[in-house]
Write a structure and sequence with these properties.
67% helix, mainly alpha, 3 helices
Length: 92
């Protein structure tokens, strides 16, 4: 298995992970019959949802970055990849 195939597998797994995190974020904190939760439990549930949402965004950002790197054509010099000396980088 080469690196590109492995990265594609990781990207697919990342998409699945994001879907699972969305399920966690969409779950109701309070059920109909369970209105008597302590403040600590409510706070922990809200923190869990927040963490799931932020983790999903972080995974999506990394997936986008990895897909961009996989789709880049090797050998092309982008402005960020070109060598610049001290003076060239600061002149305008």
């Amino acid at each position: 298995m080469n690196i590109k195939e492995t990265k594609h597998d990781i990207i697919r797994a990342g998409h699945k992970a994001v879907l699972e995190l969305i399920k966690v974020a969409e779950e109701a904190i309070l059920n109909n019959g369970d209105d008597d939760l302590s403040a600590d439990k409510l706070k922990n549930a809200a923190a869990t949802k927040k963490l799931a949402i932020f983790d999903a965004f972080e995974i999506l950002s990394r997936i986008a970055l990895e897909e961009q790197m996989l789709n880049d054509v090797p050998g092309e010099d982008t402005p960020a990849k070109q060598f610049k000396g001290f003076a060239e980088g600061r002149s305008k």
